[in-house]
Amino acid sequence: MTAFNYNELLKKAKDSIETGRVSEDRFKLPEAEIFYEGNTSVIKNFDKISDAVNREPDQILKYLLGGLGTAGERDGGRVVFQGKIPANSIQEKLKDYINIFVMCSECGKPDTHLVKKGRTTMVRCDACGAIRPLKSQKINVSRQQRVKIEEGNTYDVTIKDIGKKGDGVAFIDKYIIYVPGVVKGSAVKVKIVKISGTVAFADIVSS
Q1: pTM exceeding the 0.85 threshold for the entire prediction
Q2: Residue 147 pLDDT
């Protein structure tokens, strides 16, 4: 009799563990459907993404604009950014937003909402009850000085990504700058050789 009860309890314990694993994996961020129109980058399904994470679209957009260093606006259920921004850069910033504003730091679930306590915005988890202030996780957003770049001038930039043609991609305010012969993550001084709208082409300045 004792052995039977033990086996039955063991089976229930295993079932509960597997059920927990399924619930933890249920959250899937919709992949951003990105395409390009002229000199703009478009997230086609932005409304579905904001619905999935249960956050205000304007708040998500504000974070993306700051992180990507560009200008943009909502257009119905989609978002339009100035410049041709690499798709993986957009995806990475969306994941950063989820980690900071959505996921619970205690149980790792997305069942959270934002609440205000005085001047502080808090993330409260409906699943485990944990609560944390947003300021405890600083947003890693590079805030470039507002400038109007000009041909012939030099600027210090950080290469954020590598474009399809192998050129490095950097950002200054609304401008996307392509720089040949660099690696991702490098900090370089460049000279602007050509500007077309919000897209610029530059060469590394010799030391």
Answers
A1: no
A2: 64
